[in-house]
Amino acid sequence: MGDASTSAKGDLKLSNLTKSFGDFVAVDNLDLVIPEGSFFALLGPSGCGKTTTLRMIAGLEEPTAGSIHVGSTDITYERPYKRPVNTVFQNYALFPHLSIFENVAFGLRRRGIKDVKEQVDKVLDLVELPHLAERKPNQLSGGQQQRIAVARAIVNRPALLLLDEPLGALDLKLRRQMQIELKWIQTEIGLTFVHVTHDQEEAMTMADTIAVMNEGRIEQMGSPADLYDNPKTTFVANFLGQSNLIKGSIESNGAESLVVNLFGQKIGVPRARSSAKDSSILVGIRPEKLRILPEGESTHGNILPGGVISDVSYIGVSTQYQVEMPWGQELMVFEQNDDGIAPLDKGDRVTLSWEPIFTFGLDGREDATAGSEVHVDEEE
Ligand SMILES: Nc1ncnc2c1ncn2[C@@H]1O[C@H](COP(=O)(O)OP(=O)(O)O)[C@@H](O)[C@H]1O
Ligand SMILES: [Mg+2]
Fold this sequence. Notes:
Order of helices and strands: EEEHEEEHHHEHEHEEHHEEEEEEEEEE
CATH topology of the largest domain: Rossmann fold
CATH class of the largest domain: Alpha Beta
Number of helices: 8
CATH superfamily of the largest domain: P-loop containing nucleotide triphosphate hydrolases
Structural class: alpha+beta
Radius of gyration: 25 Å
Bound molecules: adenosine-5'-diphosphate, magnesium ion
Number of strands: 20
C-alpha cells in the first residue's frame, strides 16, 4: 500500500502499445490518451483486440512493445495487484460462499483494512442494494450480481475501472437499465471508466469518448455524436449506426461545397465533411436524414428521383423503407411516424431528398461494406 503505482493518478496513456501472438498482431501500435475521470469506450467487433488491450492495462498480459502510463507513472511492467486498476469481467465471479457484504469487503480486508463497514455500506448504497447485504450471491438476480461485481471493484477506489463487456450476460432490457445506472455511478464517483464493448448502442449511451477499434488499430476516436455525424471511414460509418454509401465522382470543388455526380444526378456535399482523396467519393447519408416522397411531389435540397420501395417495416415510432434506386442499389430510409400520414407501400415510386449539410464524403476507393457485416457477434 501507498507505493507510487497503486496511488498513481492522472490520465491513462497508451503509447505505441502492441501485442503479438506469434506472427499475429492482436493490438497494433495503439496511441491513446484517456483523460482522468472520463467514461471511455473501446468499441469494435469480436476479435479486434479489445480484451487484449484491457489485459495489458490490468497487467495480465505483457506488451510486445510500447508503454502504459497513469499520469507520469510508468506501469507497463508493474505487477497486476500494484496497479491502480480494477477489472469487471462479463463473467463476474462473486465468491459463492461469502455474503454480499463480505464479497464487497473482500478487497478492503485483503489490503489489511479493519473497519470496512462504512465503505462497504457506501458502495452498496451507490448500487442501490443495501438491503441485500446478508444474502449469498445465488440469491440475487443476474443484474443484481453484476451491480455487486461493480461495487466490489469500486470499493477499492482504483484510479481506473476496466469493464470488459460487463453487461454481455444480461438480457436486453436489463442491459439498457444497467447502462444508465453504470453511467450514473461513474458520474457520482468520478473514476476513469474504460469500457469495452462490441455493442455500438451501449457505447453511445454511456461513453464521453468512443474509440472505434478494427483489427488491432483505432479507426477513429471522438464523442458519440461526432463519430455518428462525421465518420471518416466506411468501417466507422457502417459499424456505428447505419449508413447509405453511394459511389460518385466529384465534378467541381468549391470553397464551401463539392458538386458530386451520383449516377447522373448532381448533389452538394459540404467540403469540410468530405475525406475523399481525389475525385472518387462515397457519399454518405444516414437513413433518418432522408425524406421520402411519392414521385412527382416537389422537394428541395439534394434530390434522387426514380426510387421504388422494395420493403416497408412499420415499427411504431418509425417506418423503415428499403428503396431500390435506378442503378440497382438499395437505400434505407427511416421516417418518424409523427405526421399522421399513412406509410407508403411496397412498389410505390418515390423521390428521396435531404439537406446537403447532412451529407458526408468518404474516400471512394474504400470498401463500402466494411464494418456492416460484423454486428452479429460470436461473443454472445
Ligand atoms: N493468448 C492468445 N494467443 C493467441 N491469440 C490470441 C490470444 N489472445 C487473444 N488472441 C487473438 O487476438 C485477437 C484479439 O483478441 P481479443 O483481444 O480477445 O479480441 P476482442 O476482445 O476484441 O474480441 C483474436 O484474434 C484472438 O484470437
Ligand atoms: Mg473480448
